[in-house]
Amino acid sequence: MKLYSSPGACSLADHIVLQWTGASFEVQLVTREERKSPTFLELNPAGAVPVFEDDGWVLTQNAAILNYLADTFPQAKLAGDGTPRSRAEVNRWLSFLNADVHPAFHPLFGTTAYLGEEAAAKTKDAAAKKLRGYFERLDAQLAGRDWLTGSRSIADPYLYVELRWAQKLGLNLSGLDNLAAFRVRMDADPGVRAALEAEGLG
């Protein structure tokens, strides 16, 4: 198995899950420029990470990769307790992180310069407010829980990555104590530490 990742990108979530499975795997770090190369574009025409290879089969899209890993390594228990409702809860929060929270970061990653300075500033302010609301929902979900769905799952590393983005961008997460405690737990996790070190983020 091989994962293509860029340091600190959303592919870090897949890297952490691979660490949690205990499986043998390889990680190839690629830069933004390398993701535009013909070789990489053959793997993923979108020029994005993560890209995952398993015995010659190539899979893209974060949610698909994370679910594949959960299914391939059921002993890691990263997809709920085996019941349909538990699995649906995991995918509910994974979908929220992937389809709602992640895109909300886009204006803050410098993708609005074409709008002009004033409009770009307004768009970034609106994105920051939207993200604050999303993180408040996530903080409420973590009340009384160590993990988003009660037990460790494939959704938790995605949340961790987005919390790292929020900190790097200086977003206001004040008062969100459940998220702060979650971040501390994840920072101390051996699998998380191993993935961070492998990506030069330790």
Task: Describe the structure concisely.
The protein is α+β, with helices and mostly antiparallel strands and about 200 residues long. It is built from 8 helices and 4 strands.
Blueprint (SSEs and pairs):
Layout: E1 2-5, H1 11-21, E2 26-29, H2 38-43, E3 51-54, E4 57-60, H3 62-72, H4 84-104, H5 117-141, H6 155-169, H7 177-188, H8 190-198
Parallel strand pairs: 1-2
Antiparallel strand pairs: 1-3, 3-4
Helix pairs in contact: 1-3, 1-6, 1-8, 4-6
How would you describe this protein?
The protein has helices at 11-21, 38-43, 62-72, 84-104, 117-141, 155-169, 177-188, 190-198, and strands at 2-5, 26-29, 51-54, 57-60. The chain has 202 residues and is an alpha+beta fold. The chain folds into two domains: 2-76 and 193-199, Glutaredoxin (3-Layer(aba) Sandwich), CATH 3.40.30; 84-189, Up-down Bundle (Glutathione S-transferase Yfyf (Class Pi), Chain A, domain 2). It has a four-stranded mixed sheet, covered by helices on one side. Helix 1 packs across helix 6. The longest helix is centred in the middle third of the chain and has 25 residues, at 117-141. The radius of gyration is 17 Å and the shape is globular. Residues 1-77 form the GST N-terminal domain. InterPro entries: Glutathione-S-Trfase_C-like, Glutathione-S-Trfase_C_sf, Glutathione_S-Trfase, Glutathione_S-Trfase_N, GST_C, Thioredoxin-like_sf. It holds the Pfam family GST_N. GO terms for molecular function: transferase activity.
